C-alpha cells in the first residue's frame, strides 16, 4: 500500500539540498485551513527565500531562492482553481550547480490531512 502524502502548510520545514538551507514558506489562499494554518497551493513555493544555505565559496553560490516545482502538486485536490501542494514537493533552487540543487520537504507542518497516491 502506497503512503499518504500530507498537505503542506506555511509552518512546513522545507530545505535545500545543502546543510542549513531553510525555505520561508507562505500560502496565498484564505479558504482552506488545517490545524489553523492555510494550505499551500499552486505556485506558493516558487520565489520563496532560502536562508542559512552553507554552499558558500569563491566558486559556488548558496541557495537564496526557490525556482520551479518539479513534483508535489495534487492532481485531484484544488483550492480556488490551484492544486494543493503535498509533502512530496520537490523543486529547484538558484544555488550551484545551476539547475542541480533541489528543495524538499523535511516536515509538512501537519499530518491531519493527507492525500492518497
Describe the structure.
Helices cover 0% and strands 41% of the residues. The chain is elongated. The strands form three sheets. Strands 6-3-2-9-8-7 form a six-stranded antiparallel β-sheet, with no helix packed on it. The protein is built from no helices and ten strands. The chain has a single domain (5-107), classed as Tumour Suppressor Smad4, CATH 2.60.200. The protein has strands spanning 5-6, 13-16, 22-23, 33-34, 37-38, 50-51, 66-79, 82-93, 102-107, 114-115. The N and C termini lie close together (9 Å). The chain is mainly beta and 117 residues long. This is DUF4115 domain-containing protein. It comes from Cellulomonas humilata.
Summarize it.
This protein is mostly beta strands and 117 residues long. It is 0% helix and 41% strand.
Mean pLDDT: 96
Rg from alpha-carbon coordinates? 14 Å
Q: Biggest β-sheet: count, sense, barrel?
A: 6 strands, antiparallel
Globular, elongated, flat, extended or rod-shaped: what is the shape?
elongated
Structural class: mainly beta
Q: How far apart, in Å, are the first and last alpha carbons? A: 9 Å
- The CATH class label is Mainly Beta
CATH architecture descriptor text:
Sandwich
Please tally the β strands and state the result. Answer: 10
Largest sheet, spatial ordering of strands = 6-3-2-9-8-7
Q: Return the CATH topology.
A: Tumour Suppressor Smad4
| Number of helical regions | 0
SSE run: EEEEEEEEEE
Helix content: under 10%
Number of domains: 1
- The percentage of residues in β strands lies in 35-45%
Low confidence ranges: none
Amino acid at each position: 500500500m502506497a503512503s499518504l502524502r500530507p498537505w503542506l502548510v506555511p509552518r512546513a520545514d522545507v530545505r535545500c539540498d545543502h546543510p542549513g538551507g531553510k525555505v520561508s514558506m507562505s500560502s496565498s489562499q484564505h479558504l482552506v485551513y488545517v490545524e489553523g494554518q492555510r494550505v499551500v497551493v499552486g505556485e506558493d513555493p516558487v520565489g520563496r527565500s532560502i536562508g542559512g544555505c552553507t554552499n558558500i565559496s569563491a566558486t559556488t553560490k548558496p541557495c537564496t531562492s526557490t525556482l520551479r516545482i518539479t513534483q508535489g502538486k495534487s492532481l485531484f485536490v484544488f483550492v480556488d482553481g490551484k492544486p494543493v501542494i503535498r509533502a512530496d514537493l520537490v523543486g529547484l533552487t538558484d544555488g550551484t550547480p545551476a539547475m542541480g540543487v533541489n528543495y524538499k520537504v523535511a516536515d509538512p507542518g501537519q499530518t491531519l490531512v493527507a492525500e492518497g497516491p
